[in-house]
Amino acid sequence: MADAPPGELVRVAVDAPQHSGLSGPLDYASEQALTSGTLVRVPLGKRELLGVVWPGLAAPAPGLALKPVAAVFDALPPLGADWCRLLDFAAGYYQRSVGELASAVLPPQLRELSPGQLAARLRKLARKPAPAPAAEPARPALAPEQAAAVARIEAQVGGGGGRPLLLFGVTGSGKTEVYLRAAEAALAAGRQVLVLVPEINLTPQLEARFTERFAALLPQPLAIVSLHSALTPAQRLQNWLAAHLGHARLVLGTRLAVFASLPALGLIVVDEEHDPSYKQQDGARYSARDLAVWRAHDLKVPVVLGSATPSLESWQHAESGRYERLTLASRIGGGALPKVRLFDMKALPAAPGVTTALTAPLLAALRERLDRGEQSLVFLNRRGYAPVLHCGECQWKSDCPHCSAWRVFHKRDRTLRCHHCGFTERVPRACPNCGNHDIAPIGRGTERLEEQLAEALPGARVLRIDADSTRRKGELEAQLQAVHDGEVDILVGTQMVTKGHDFRRIRFVAAVNPDGALFSSDFRAPERLFALLMQAGGRAGRDAAGEGGSEMWVQTWHRDHALYQALARHDYERFAADQLAERRSAGLPPFSHLALLRAEARTAEAAKAFLDAAAALLQDAQVLVYPPVPHAVARVADVERMQMLVEAGQRARLQAFLRAWVPALIALKRERPEFRAVLRWAVDVDPLAI
Hints:
Blueprint: E1 8-14, E2 26-30, E3 39-44, E4 47-54, E5 71-72, H1 81-93, H2 98-105, H3 115-126, H4 144-159, E6 165-169, H5 175-188, E7 192-196, H6 203-214, E8 224-227, H7 233-244, E9 250-253, E10 265-271, H8 288-299, E11 303-307, H9 312-320, E12 324-328, E13 339-344, H10 360-371, E14 375-379, E15 388-391, E16 408-410, E17 415-417, E18 424-426, E19 439-442, H11 446-456, E20 462-465, H12 475-484, E21 490-493, E22 506-511, H13 525-537, E23 551-556, H14 562-568, H15 572-586, E24 593-601, H16 604-615, E25 623-625, E26 629-636, E27 639-648, H17 651-671, E28 678-685
Parallel strand pairs: 6-11, 6-12, 7-9, 7-10, 8-9, 10-11, 13-23, 14-21, 14-22, 20-21, 22-23
Antiparallel strand pairs: 1-2, 1-4, 3-4, 3-5, 15-19, 16-17, 17-18, 24-27, 24-28, 25-27, 26-27
Helix pairs in contact: 4-5
């Protein structure tokens, strides 16, 4: 391609490979003046890539002939200055290039279209028919606590934002109705609303709720859209364009939707704000919750963070006054929180099978609920039939040849499956090590629990919901509907069924084998366990009707543990205070700020050598760099994984260190031949799992 004649100069954010060291926008020549935010196609090496014209003046090196912009998407309005600011902040904070981030968050189909094809899509979008007219919905009366929360949010909608609002409401307290009323206020003011949910499987449920409420108020085509990875590329592009053009007034989505282009954004809601799913685990490892808070602050619009078990970071911000806390302490309609019974496994008589998940008292409790015609939920956060197969003769176990982990036995299709790399084999007829035919499962997953419940309670309609039972499109929706319709007596599930679902008929919840997280090396494990158990218990007794009270049963070997004692009292505030006191004394987040440098190589020695060299690159008396250690699962898909923790008392100090360190890491990998053995490395700022 010939170089362009002198003309306009533009900066373009384009996805350049990390090892090139090109982290900022690149300079190009253009035949016409281009507004920042305009989408273009530009050459980079031998490829032609999608790029975004970036704010700021181009400053090429003297005498350097610039490549020309290849094509301009002039049918599409430019992305807003606020969108560019959001990406600039996110790229800087999470130590990625702005072009890489822009490429990751724009709809993938944009990369494949020419300006003419995109113009055709826009014309098709303009011809979209309006939905059928909808009746005005009934709006439930607000409880006093709900009304007070709505009033505070409405005040911020009309007053140009304020402090982030932490909506702390027990499960079943009507947080969704508060979101709906807040959205109503923002829509009435002519603004757009962004609602984030942690899991894709919650999006259709919330979408149905918002559509029912706002279909009459928003009769235009594509006024309510969703954005998540389960959409087809064409759907995702259509919904993104509707949001960008302002047609979509209400956008519901998972973490990626925090980057949606919304020119009239007036309210952001982050439901279940504590959920780890808001943190991206590869590429640019951003936190959608934290970016939602930053975006709201930048635009001076309200942001509502809702949870029954807020993250300790958000709780600490509320305690210190940085966030404003709105509390919903009571369930709607007079429903009581389930009574928590801590069942002490040590009280069972010593006998074979004492470690079983289905103890005789638990089965009796399930049978009692069954006789009353009530639904029960049995929660076990481990899918598959059994965690491992074992040979009693030679002690062989079903380890994965490619990972430092066990392959899980799945009885339904008679496979051993690694949940880390996906390696799957048929179950061997005999022990592959010694030939013994008597190989048996050890431990228990949801598949085995489902089978044992069906055997122990004949006639009970048992349904399992986990990642294995809902693989095919539409399966999850059908199974959830069966629960809602009363076609299920006992629901067995992983954490998938504990989040956000409004099961009106469930009166009894049992958590079996939850103790493992109490003794994890990850300092966040207790926080995650408490949230998970509170959420699981929150599925019970959401309808005030029923003969007996709702109950949550926790089978534990550590009944007196402070976490379980706080759970029994539904006392999140006590739990949070204890955890924050521990974190403060240990100098852990939110009282310090962390980053992880991760390295992957074919050998652990190569990964460790790279991390050791990285540690020697930069010294700062206020930043502590710990020695490298292996990941919890050190080998995945024949790749060894090591990590190194970086800690600072102040966020600004950590950021300054990382800004100087990352370019040095890029140079280290590029210039030292011995580090070519390192396959990948990445910096993870504010890591969730350590």
